[in-house]
Design goal:
The protein is mostly helical. It has 2 domains: 1-64, no CATH class; 85-142, no CATH class. It has 7 helices and no strands. It has helices at 9-31, 38-48, 54-57, 68-84, 90-99, 104-125, 131-140. α2 (38-48) crosses α4 (68-84) and α4 crosses α6 (104-125). It starts with 8 loop residues before the first helix and ends with a helix. The mean pLDDT is 89.
Length: 142
């Protein structure tokens, strides 16, 4: 993005619609007990951990203040970060949070919050990912 340009909101909306459709298809396949590939099973497991969002999985659209689709996708992203320890330090931060007594799901939420703050900074400041800044954010989690 150029310094003076704005995000393509129509493109972002199309991306959001596509993401919702993918997750809703996974939910429908669950109801039909269809076989799924590993990435789909992982997403389904996350959706099942958020049954309060079931109306959204079944067709309701989120309002501007909540987005369970993004929430599940952030869980998925953070789980991948923990598994691969990329960015470096993610797994150690997660393990430290769990060892301190947090439930694994709540520890993931802390990482999601940190990741979301970093993404927001990238967009707001129009800059690339800063691994050192993110690592400091992870180190500060409690």
């Amino acid at each position: 993005m150029d310094a003076g340009s704005r995000p393509d909101t129509a493109a972002l909306e199309r991306l959001a619609i596509t993401g919702r459709a993918v997750l809703r298809r996974i939910w429908a396949r669950r109801d039909r007990r269809e076989a799924m590939a590993e990435p789909e099973r992982r997403l389904l497991e996350l959706m099942e951990r958020h049954l309060d969002a079931r109306p959204f999985w079944e067709g309701a659209d989120p309002d501007e203040h909540e987005n369970p689709f993004l929430h599940v996708l952030m869980h998925h992203q953070v789980a991948e970060q923990i598994e691969r320890d990329r960015p470096a330090g993610t797994r150690a931060a997660y393990e430290r949070l769990v060892a301190s007594g947090l439930e694994p799901h709540e520890a993931e939420h802390r990482l999601i919050d940190a990741w979301a703050r970093e993404l927001a900074r990238q967009v707001r400041e129009r800059r690339p990912f800063d691994a050192e800044r993110y690592r400091a954010e992870l180190d500060a989690l409690s």
